[in-house]
Every structure is written in structure tokens, then in C-alpha cells.
Amino acid sequence: MSTTRVALVTSEAGLGLDEDLPPVVAALAERGVAAEPVVWGAARTAWERFDLAVVRSTWDYVERLDAFLAWADSTARATRLWNPAPLIRWNSDKHYLRELAGRGVAVVPTRFLEPGAPFDPARLDGPDGVVVKPAVSAGALDTARYPPGHAGAAARHARALLDRGRGVMVQPYLPRVAEGERALVLFGGVLSHAVRKDPLLTEPGVVDNDRHPHPGVVRYRPTGAEVRTALAALAALPSARPPLFARVDLVLDDRGEPVVLEVELVEPNLFLDTDPQAPARFADAVVALPQPQS
After folding, report:
1. Is residue 3's pLDDT more than 80?
2. Which residue segment(s) compose the domain that 164 sits in?
């Protein structure tokens, strides 16, 4: 019987920096699966030689989104791709938050500004300020928060993004983010582990694309309300089957209730090093994926 071959899809940067790759390779090897990291944009990769391609640290996809989505579509024709190409496409643009809200999921209230459409700069304000970010982004790139009374600066930030043809998100700044973001990691729709992270946008009005995207990560035991919110977000995805992996990022609103900041289905850091059993759970979820119909 032939050995199952799995491509762990990464980027050039991910080859050297993704600390999750070695433990996943080892955990899959223990289950008789031969896994190897493969750069998604590498020329002449024969994806059909793999039984499965698992998208992991494709950290440069935002810079080359059209090429990445075309790669996902073509690779899905050559082999099994997880998460699936339609879900990757849906999740690559944070307009999905509007859809989740429409399906009853508690999300951070979000307004979208579109290139070419007018907007009122005065509305880029709030009692605790606002956060301005691109609708297609990762790791808080080109993102900043603005205190109350700084609508002009927020509008200039938004306009600079819009003038480059990028959709923009405007969200209220939630002060209880000072208590930390919660990131719940699920494999096959089942909670594996969770972490809490320090606030990221600590300097008002500053776009810092060199900041560490996950400061102060510590293992965390989520509350029942946080788990229910994460599961509700997964249940609202446009997919008949739970994703292989998902990270649901939550913050607390003014009432102390968890609300979804993001649902990460493309290339999230899974923080496998915070739980000794997490690599094994991930490998088990990979092995449990449905086999192609003969």
C-alpha cells in the first residue's frame, strides 16, 4: 500500500519562519503520512503528485491575491485542497463579516467603504475612536486606530487605501480589547486549544507594518460564551463541511460579550506550540479528511 503524500503549502518566508511546520510533519509521519513543505508560488510544482495539499503559511497571499486565488483553483483540480478553494476565496476578503452578521453571528460592527464610492469623513469617529483597515489584509497590515475626535486622520488613512483600489473596513475601537484578544483554534469543527494575545494597536494613529502580529501569546481557557460564539461562526460558513482548520479571533464588547473580530481560514498561525497535543490533533484531522470518490 502506497504512502499518503501531503504538501504543507507555505511561502518563501514560511519555509524558514513557520514553527508549526516541523511538528506537523512529525505528527503526520507517526500516522504513516509523508508530508513536506512546498511553496505555493514555486514554478513547475507538480501538485498532482500529492494526495492532499494543506494550505498553511502562505503569508504573502495578500500581496498577490489574484495569483494566489488562481493557484488555489488550479491546485484543487490537481489534488484535494484544504481548506477548499471556494472557502479560501470567500475568506480572503473580510467582507465575509457582513455575511456572518447577516446569519446571526455576533461580530464587531463593521462598515465598508468601497473604491469610487463617496463617504462622509465625519462618520469615521466614535465615542472610543475607530479602527481603519483594508478589507484584504493579514497581520494588521496597513491598519491603525484613531482616538475620538480624529476623524480627519482616519479619513485620510481610508482615502489613501481607497485611492489604491482597496476596500476599507471601519470598526469601533472596543476598549475591552485591553483585556486581550482571544484566538480559538478548531480542527474539523472541534475546539483544539485557545490563546490570549496582547492588544496590537497600542499606538493611536500609527500604521506599523513591522509590528509583531501576535504579541504576548499565552495559553487560554475560553469561556462557554466564547466557545459558543466560535462554533456559531463556523456553522455560518458557506460550506457543507467544517473546515480542516480555523482560528476564530474574538474580543469583548462593552457588555463583556464575545464578538468575532475575524475568522481565519487561509493561513492563520495555529499556535501549536502552546499545547503539546495540538500537532497530534491537527494530524488526526488531516487523516480524517474525506477521500476522493472513485
Report:
1. no
2. 111-172
